[in-house]
Design goal:
- Two copies of one chain form a homodimer.
- Chain A has 333 residues and is mainly alpha-helical.
- Chain A has a single domain, classed as Orthogonal Bundle (Farnesyl Diphosphate Synthase), CATH 1.10.600.10.
- Chain A has 18 helices and two strands.
- Chain A has a two-stranded antiparallel ribbon.
- In chain A, strand 1 and strand 2 form a beta hairpin.
- In chain A, helix 5 packs antiparallel against helix 18.
- The radius of gyration of chain A is 20 Å and the shape is globular.
- Chain A starts with a helix and ends with a helix.
- The interface between A and B is large, with 44 and 44 residues.
Chain lengths: 333, 333
């Protein structure tokens, strides 16, 4: 391929390849987020849906369907479904986390209120459910219903695990599989199911989405301690301030000595933090190589995602998915 | 029938008639609200699900299925689905309304927190979706997906309509159809659909549920101004304090003169209320016969519900549904 293409980011190459489909997805999203009776709904959703997210999840569904030779139109429904579920969880996360910004813009619950975020999120869940029912595929419905339950379960688990220094990497992985990877894997899987792909390919799609999602979230959690606030669109140290036990913290806590342990108990368990504590926390993370070890874990998951692609048909989208797994962990540097 | 049966409340007679089914529904609810990974979930849901609600909505589904001669087992799934959707909306309402009690007990968001209420509600929505997918009926999925969207839309509409003195009875009816009647009508309708009843009967089931739901909500809104706090399990005047424009208020505002108008602007639009204002509000409601006119409207809807039953097969459950419509408005006295 020409240099100019090679140098493009993989999700931009996917966006170019899937441009016609993505136009159809965006049209469907705009149509279905409208509400005859409640104009507040499109006001709130437009803020999120038009906010210029990368639309990564719906692209995964479209990519999977294309790779498996699908020629129908229901992949458009499913891509919109996946984006609606994602947007609904963002709206509910904003209520939950009391976070101050999302994608570099104020969250909906600051612009409107918690009430609107909860109810408009519910509306989008219901709409996503209508969109997938239209496909007439009970297997697709089953996959996305299970994914929705797993997402909510992961979020609740995160709630009870945060502030708890006993949280292990195993629990962290369950949280990540729920809150992030479940939708990535379902987005891939339904693309294969709607294309009536062989079972081994459907399994491969699931495995790729699962590993990509885990890698993606680990990197996100890593960047929370070492990223550039402008680039990642959120504040450095948010997770620390919200007392979330993410992989870097779990690794550092596991190696902490008495004095450090007291620091974590005060800042994470008791939530007594001063402005200077974030720097101290980051120093402890460096001391125990928690950030570099976390980067290694993220790269392992990206490698798993790439090797999961093996059973899938050769297709230009397959190369993009391969490069996407690399790109997700390139964000670390 | 013996006097002792006749003197029983109609929903108690339904509960007796449907006792075996309701045991199966309760078992299914308990099984499906469990979570392997997140023990917080059953803690929160048990609080609501075990709180001794009347289980009116699932009984409607069971009743409709029996009346239409259904002999399978999926009505159990659908009854549990309907109760899960209802419980999820209660959890999200509690966040939204910041109300202090529900069914006479503290709300989940006071016992736990808003985060748990939002996320556990999401979990129940996803679980309800799994339960209905198991029936394999796309028509049932379509009905319940639409009902879920209508419920959320009604709640958002209520959000924008509250504090707004320009709210008409037409807007109020849309809110009520959404937040209450949509689930009543869907609960009835899916019972007929799963039984493969003739279309005219399915329509009749929908119409009964719709009219019963509207009557039920109008009575609820009426009792908010004239009920007995102990009996209805919530505080008198909650809607007034939350500046909700329900039917009694809309009727009184429509007839208000200058001085009263200023009172409503201060208390509802501007939200500047003192403890004495509720008594003044109630006095204005009596002055314009707003409470008695609202009672008339509720009785009209109950009559509509009863006449909707006409096309349905003669069945002992049909008599109970007829009496249930009467009972809903009897609560006024």
């Amino acid at each position: 391929m020409p240099m100019s293409e090679k140098s493009q980011k993989p999700h931009d190459r996917m966006a170019t390849f899937l441009a016609a489909d993505m136009l159809a997805v965006n049209d469907l999203i705009r149509t279905r987020m409208a509400s005859e009776h409640a104009p507040r709904i499109p006001e709130v959703t437009a803020h999120l849906v038009e906010a210029g997210g990368k639309r990564l999840r719906p692209m995964l569904t479209l990519a999977a369907a294309h790779m498996c030779g699908y020629e129908g139109r229901y992949h458009i429904n499913l891509a919109a479904t996946v984006e609606f579920i994602h947007t609904a969880t963002l709206l509910h996360d904003d209520v939950v986390d009391e976070s101050g910004q999302r994608r570099g813009r104020p969250t909906a619950n600051l612009l409107w209120d918690n009430k609107s975020s909860v109810l408009v999120g519910d509306y989008l869940f219901a709409r996503s459910f209508q969109l997938m029912t239209e496909t007439g595929s009970l297997r697709v419905l089953d996959i996305l219903a299970n994914a929705s339950a797993t997402i909510a379960e992961g979020e609740v688990l995160q709630l009870t695990a945060s502030q708890d220094l006993a949280t292990t990497e195993e629990v962290y992985l369950k949280v990540v599989r729920g809150k992030t990877a479940a939708l990535f894997s379902a987005a891939m899987e339904v693309g294969g199911v709607i294309a009536d792909a062989p079972e081994a390919q459907i399994r491969a799609l699931f495995d790729y989405g699962d590993a990509l999602g885990v890698a993606f979230q680990i990197v996100d959690d890593l960047l929370d301690f070492q990223g550039d606030a402008g680039a990642i669109g959120k504040n450095i140290g948010d997770d620390f301030r919200e007392r979330k036990l993410t992989m870097p913290l779990i690794k550092a806590v596991a190696k902490s000595e008495a004095e450090e342990r007291a620091f974590w108990e005060r800042t994470i368990e008791k939530g007594k933090q001063t402005d200077a504590d974030l720097d101290t926390a980051i120093a402890y993370l460096h001391k125990h190589a928690a950030l570099t070890d976390t980067a290694v874990a993220a790269r392992d998951w990206a490698a798993k995602a790439k090797s999961a692609l093996t059973p899938l048909p050769d297709h230009e989208v397959k190369h993009m998915l391969n490069d996407l797994a690399d790109y997700v962990v390139e964000r670390i540097n």
